[in-house]
Design brief:
- The protein is an alpha+beta fold.
- It has a domain at 74-185: Rieske [2Fe-2S] iron-sulphur domain (Rieske Iron-sulfur Protein, 3-layer Sandwich), CATH 2.102.10.
- It contains four helices and eleven strands; from the N terminus they run H-H-H-H-E-E-E-E-E-E-E-E-E-E-E.
- The relative contact order is 0.12.
Amino acid sequence: MAVLTTVLRKIQMKPSKIKTLKGKKPDEAPAEVSRRSFLSILWSALGLAALMEFLWMTFSFLRPAKPGSAENQANTVIHAGAVASFVPGTVTAFQSGEFYIVRLDDGGLLALSCKCTHLGCTVPWIEKEKKFLCPCHASAFDITGNVINSPATRSLDIFPVIIENNIVRVDTGKRIKRGNFDPKQVIYPPKV
């Protein structure tokens, strides 16, 4: 018990001893950092780190993509399937390419982007209502991608459709912006 009391007394320094430590030369005195100066240094370091991260994100956002990057060289033609697998009057979603294959009642095909032309939200096809409805701002599009309810001001974008040997392929690397639906945009399979 006496040893514990002695250790505790040595730990608790009297104010007179603290004054003598402050009076010693800097190389002899223990380094003392006040709480205020420690917090000041900590907040300055955190602020500098936040500033550096902000500058890095801004630079990354503004820097254009390199023309030879892997993203730009990726194969963008997606194999959608046989023409016969798309029933007239239906819409088939392709999540990998973020598009829909629309088979119109007359047999023509369209590849519509699944992104709303207002703010880029994903627009699902609502089979019961026979239209694309944007969940973000209530834009609506018909089966050809034409706007039937604003705030969207133009039709859904389309992708080129290629039909070879009765196989449908979609080139997602060539998005086509359009104002309204034009029957010339529909691709028809060759008649056998």
